[in-house]
Amino acid sequence: MKKIILLSAIILSCMGFANAQSYSYGDNMRQIYSINYQINVPMGSSKDFISNASFEGVNFNWAYFLTDNVAVGMDLSYNNYHKSIGKEIYRPNENMAINAAQYRYTQVFPLKAQVKYFFNPYSLVKGYAGLGIGALSAGQHIVVQDLDSWDNNWGFLVAPEVGVLIPFGENSPFGANITAGYNFSTNKSSICNTSSNNRQSFYFNVGMYVAIY
Amino acid sequence: MKIVKLTVIALMSIWVTSCSWGPGDLDQTQDQILTVAYKSPDANFQSLKTYALADSMSVVINGEKKRVKNEVSENIFSLISQNLSKLGYTQTTPSQNPDILVDLGYIQSTNKTVYPGYWSDWDWWWDYYYYPWYPWYPYYPYPMPTIVSTYTTGTIIIEMADVTLAKDQTVPIIWHGVVRSILNGTHTQAQLTDAINEVFTILPPK
């Protein structure tokens, strides 16, 4: 999986570099490709399973401008949450007891179609607000020694976000992308003695974009 | 262009080096001691007063099973005996018709996933003490998950069978304690003692 994501990132980047040769400053942006480092802070019942923030995330985003202000596109992320829990007695029922330390982790793949509205498309620094709708896949694991109990689930995803594009120079098609958003998905999970009815998280992207004019 | 390359390299480096994947997760908990206890919901522990210990333990080494009596088995049986005495049981010998028989299994190493009962070798009771219900098969009157996988070594299993319920050449296991990986060479005698005491404490056979 890691190889596929890496390969996709390289291909995506190459597409951007190759097509970016004909840009000239002042033309409207037609497409934006970005790759970002992502941090997620769990909220709601997601926090009950793993309260720690995820610092292991990556995000790929593509936006295609329909008008000067409006762009549509796709957004794919991956993030990994994990937490160690010290030894605790767990009782699945009155006739069974387990005393063990747990290692919990959740791997999350949000995939969404997005629409973005750019407030100031002709400014050097461009701010935008967006809304994503799609699906979120989550794999939740409780590992005790080599015993792994897991639950893979899918849910409907809604994700509003705001962001800003900051070019590296006046004539540069490259720049920094900073995004903050909120993922809400309808994933339901049940694993050992834990359960949740949805997944929620704040996410923050910091990365680089390439614009195609 | 230089700043672009540096940014890409920095982003990819942060992502790749910060991830923990698959097998690495095992490192987080494999040195921890895991104790599990099961109890039959149908057992009437109040009516059971006496128990007898096996005189050896079943040892599984890469699929081969044999009965072994050594310092390790004596040590563990001694700890089991102390815990059962604390719970009010009286030790007898197998020939004195005890209410409970206690057997001990030790998965030293395995090359396959081990399910409940795999280590059991209850025929030895007949061989030694001429019980009338040979061949004698223990069964678990409650659901049991997998106990030992190919990754696990040094696991102890303690079984208590209710002889008063022996019927049709079978006998129910009424309590079952497992201490995973305690004898994998990384734990001390004090940890062994604590773990055996723990398995009798988290769900006492009483």
Quick gist of this model?
Chain A is mostly beta strands and 213 residues long.
What does this structure look like?
With 213 residues, chain A is mainly β. Chain A has a single domain, classed as Porin. Chain A is built from two helices and ten strands, in the order αβαβββββββββ. An eight-stranded antiparallel β-barrel of chain A has the order 1-2-3-4-5-6-7-10. In chain A, strands 8-9 form a two-stranded antiparallel ribbon. In chain A, a hairpin with a 2-residue loop joins β3 and β4. Chain A is elongated. About 11% of the residues of chain A have low confidence. Chain B is an alpha/beta fold and 206 residues long. Chain B has a single domain, classed as Double Stranded RNA Binding Domain. In chain B, strands 1, 2, 3, 4, 5, 6, 7, 8 and 9 form a nine-stranded mixed β-sheet that branches. In chain B, α2 runs parallel beside α4. Chain B is globular. About 10% of the residues of chain B have low confidence. Classes of the chains: A mainly beta (213), B alpha/beta (206). At the A-B interface, α1, β1, β2, β3 and β4 of A face α1 and β1 of B. β4 of chain A pairs antiparallel with β1 of chain B, so a sheet runs across the interface.
